[in-house]
Design brief:
Number of helices: 9
Radius of gyration: 19 Å
Strand content: under 5%
Largest sheet: none
Helix content: 55-70%
Length: 204
């Protein structure tokens, strides 16, 4: 079933030059768009300090969720090897990739950690980011480097870590305060950033 669904999606590759470019862009741009999303959340100078600060807390939760999930995935990769589709099958591979373990997809872990954290935090960008995450997940199958279960596994892993992090705000708080102290020092050195410091009215 895993391979059959993979074939349904991957066989679309090469049928449309425009769709190929969209999928390749979606997969290659993932880390850059992830950074843009986090910067947009952090440097959101809303009129209400509480709303702006909540978004900065969301960034911290996203980073923790992502690191947590990627660390678990690194352990999975170290103890379990599952060959990528192009290793064992003839596929339409649009992007070069190493023949390391396919399960779980790091790209999926990253994008769904962001998406699920935003969903759990009820952020205004949640639907847009979730759509992007799904597109990236599909693109990994489309370009021939992952199976559907690799993507689903990444989404599941990220949901679990996001849920754990968001559900334990008190445990995250010391780290959050450390981050804000560092950011305060940065705003002192670069005064133009001071308008993005909202901790005085904290309620993440």
């Amino acid at each position: 079933m895993n391979y059959e669904v993979f074939q349904l999606i991957n066989n679309l590759a090469g049928q449309s030059a425009i769709l190929d470019k969209i999928m390749v862009f979606a997969t290659k741009s993932t880390p850059y768009i992830a950074i843009i999303i986090l910067l947009a959340l952090w440097f959101n100078n809303r009129k209400v300090d509480h709303a702006a600060l909540k978004k900065q807390y969301t960034v911290i939760y996203v980073v923790l969720s992502t690191v947590f999930a990627l660390a678990i995935n690194a352990i999975i990769h170290s103890v379990y090897y599952h060959p990528r589709p192009f290793v064992t099958h003839q596929v339409h591979q649009l992007v070069a990739h190493g023949a390391d373990s396919s399960f779980v997809s790091d790209h999926s872990v990253l994008v769904f950690a962001i998406a699920f954290t935003l969903l759990l935090r009820n952020d205004s960008l949640k639907n847009l980011v979730l759509t992007w995450a799904i597109l990236v997940g599909i693109s990994r199958i489309y370009i021939g480097v992952h199976y559907p279960l690799d993507v689903i596994g990444g989404a599941f892993l990220s949901f679990m870590t996001s849920f754990i992090v968001v559900s334990n705000e008190k445990m995250v708080e010391p780290l959050a305060q450390f981050v804000f102290r560092i950011f305060k020092k940065i705003t002192i050195a670069i005064p133009v950033l001071s308008k993005y410091y909202h901790v005085t009215r904290r309620n993440g």
